[in-house]
Design a protein that fits this description.
WD repeat, 29 strands, F-box-like_dom_sf, WD40_repeat_dom_sf, 590 residues, FBXW5, Methylamine Dehydrogenase, Chain H, five-stranded antiparallel beta sheet, Monooxygenase, F-box and WD repeat domain containing 5, single chain, alpha+beta
């Protein structure tokens, strides 16, 4: 006997529109008719916008093929289930970094060790492979690490023990073949961190104080292997020499390669987002300024670090000033520094927004760093274009470079109007994500040593490195509580579809890059300093905390798959298993 539906499809659809998503899927198990209606695309479109509270003018993710699949992606593919806690560190864990293949990751800690971990064990667990202590080199702690492009070398950055308030650091290069130390490079201030330019060369910093408020930052290109046979072969070369005024310094350098700017993994739809903001009447946030510095100020400085300079800095370092000169003297010093800078700064090259020469449009390399011009707290993103002839230490001998009296002008600056506490690049290097704590709107800075109070709410800015503009509305959810002079870096990370960040409120956070929504909170017992997505699988995330642990997070989908592989096969349930997972595993999903 042929089955006759009791209710027409249109009426079933109207009923389903009133139900939550899990009830819809369960109702779909009742009969074939209800199953077909429960997969209706119009139904899942409504459920999607309602459940995630996304403005309807925001289009579906460009790579999505259905609304049902997109709902499931955001619900089931977020790494929000804690599957392992690593407790091998005995002090605060400050930073995490994956290898480019995703088979290893490194961790840095206040216990002054850098540890290497294996992620490819057959049982799915992560295990410790190697641990190196840097105390023998007079380090206070390790703070940052980065794998080179072919995963053969590890850059490790740490804080070098010295006089009170010393800002010196050091960078070590470790071979991943036999874990031997290949070279050590002084790095000042320590929160420059350092980074790889290519497989064999890394960038470090140096700082020289010229006055109480004026300094010179020098960025150096260093060869990773410094045991050369000839004294005539350069192992170090000066990249840029930049003046700092008002007690600011260059910090947190990173390199962006622009080869894929015209073909990004995810092209963010900013027009739809801005339209949605207008329709919803959302408050418009501060838009960072963008301007060319042209022949903006720079100052003079030496190249070598002397103990006397460190002692002088200990008295005048902006994070811990002693007796400060009168305000009028500081103002005069800044005016003189600006005048001298205009006379001794090289003219900028072509604008970064101008088309490149034919064939070179996607080969630009940018050096990105935090800096400032109004106060010692970093509140600007500086951008310098690195030319092809600067990619190696070969070239002019060091003595000729030291005789240069000129400073390099910045190619672009983006003002964030707040204290910058973190930066991260998207995998395609198209977008720069910046953590900052905003200053009060309309505030004016009269004393560089007294920056404005900073907000407890952290703003996550998104900057398009192709147009050099800030895009979309600011991402928010995470918080920080330390004041200006105690503010520290909170590392964030970006995958193809997600962005994650630590916070001082004892949680890590995950947002969807396309929809600008917070999807999960990851709980710790103390401040979360760093997060890292596996480049091989964005459904695997790590978080590091002041509670001395590293937590491993996987998506509910991957957890079920691993559990299914571990137990004997059985008949497949008709009920979609992604709905039956324990809701507590979301760890406070907002």
């Amino acid at each position: 006997m042929e089955y006759v539906p009791v209710l027409p499809d249109s009426l079933v659809l109207e009923i389903f529109m009133l139900l939550p998503h899990d009830a819809v899927l369960r109702a779909g198990l009742t009969c074939r008719q209800w199953l077909a209606v429960s997969r209706d695309e119009f139904l899942w479109r409504e459920l999607f916008y309602t459940y995630y509270r996304i403005p309807r003018s925001v289009p579906r993710h460009p790579s999505s093929v259905s609304w049902h699949g997109e709902f499931r992606r955001l619900f089931d593919c977020i790494p929000c289930v804690e599957v392992q806690t690593l407790k091998e560190h005995c002090d605060q864990v400050l930073h995490l970094a994956f290898s480019h293949r995703g088979h290893r990751f490194s961790s840095c800690s206040k216990d002054c060790t850098v540890k290497l971990w294996d992620t490819e064990r057959a049982d799915g667990n992560i295990s410790l492979v190697h641990s190196s202590s840097m105390r023998q080199f007079n380090w206070g702690y390790t703070q940052f690490s980065q794998f080179n492009a072919d995963d053969t070398l590890l850059l490790v950055s740490g804080v070098y023990l010295g006089p009170h308030h010393s800002s010196s650091g050091e960078i070590a290069v470790i071979s991943l073949e036999n874990y031997t130390l290949l070279s050590r490079v002084r790095n000042k201030p320590y929160d420059v961190f350092g980074c790889w330019l290519n497989e064999t060369h890394l960038i470090s910093g140096n700082l020289h104080w010229i006055g109480n408020m004026t300094s010179c930052s020098v960025l150096w290109l260093n060869k990773a292997f410094q045991d050369v046979e000839s004294e005539n072969v350069n192992v170090v070369k000066r990249l840029f020499k930049i003046q700092n005024i008002n007690a600011s310094t260059i910090r947190t350098v990173m390199v962006a390669h622009c080869r894929r700017h015209d073909n990004p993994d995810l092209l963010l739809d900013y027009e739809a987002q801005s339209q949605a903001q207008k329709q919803k009447g959302w408050r418009q946030h501060h838009q960072p300024l963008l301007f060319d510095l042209g022949a903006s100020g720079s100052e003079d400085g030496d190249e070598d670090v002397e103990d006397e300079e460190q002692q002088k800095e200990a008295r005048s370092h902006p994070l811990g000033p002693g007796s400060r000169p009168a305000g009028q003297e500081l103002e005069i010093e800044t005016q003189v520094a600006q005048m001298l800078g205009k006379a001794h700064t090289k003219a900028p090259g072509s604008s970064l927004l101008e088309p490149s020469e034919p064939g070179n449009g996607e080969d630009k390399t940018y050096l990105l760093f935090t800096t400032g011009s109004l106060t010692y707290s970093p509140h600007q993103i500086g951008i310098k274009c690195i030319k092809p002839d600067q990619m190696t230490t070969s070239g002019p001998v060091l003595g000729e470079e030291r005789n240069s009296e000129f400073f390099d002008s910045l190619d672009h600056v983006i003002d964030i109007h707040g204290h910058i506490i973190g930066m991260g690049l998207s995998p395609d290097h198209r977008y720069l994500y910046v953590n900052s704590r905003a200053w009060p709107p309309g505030c004016k800075i009269s004393d560089p040593m007294c920056p404005p109070p900073i907000a407890q709410e952290i703003d996550l800015h998104v900057i398009d490195l192709k147009s050099l503009r800030e895009e979309r509305r600011i991402l928010r959810a995470h918080r920080a509580f330390t004041p200006n002079d105690e503010c520290f870096f909170i590392f964030l990370d970006v995958s193809r579809d997600f962005v994650a960040s630590g916070a001082e409120d004892k949680h890590g956070y995950i947002w969807d890059r396309h929809y600008n929504i917070c999807l999960a909170r990851l709980a710790h017992d103390d401040v979360v300093n760093s997060v890292a997505f596996s480049p091989a699988d964005q459904e695997l995330l790590l978080s590091a905390s002041d509670d001395s642990t590293i937590k491993v997070w996987r998506s509910p989908r991957m957890v079920r798959l691993s559990q299914a592989m571990a137990r004997p096969s059985r008949p497949r349930s008709l009920l979609p298993s992604w709905l039956s997972r324990n809701k507590n595993c979301v760890n406070g999903r907002p």
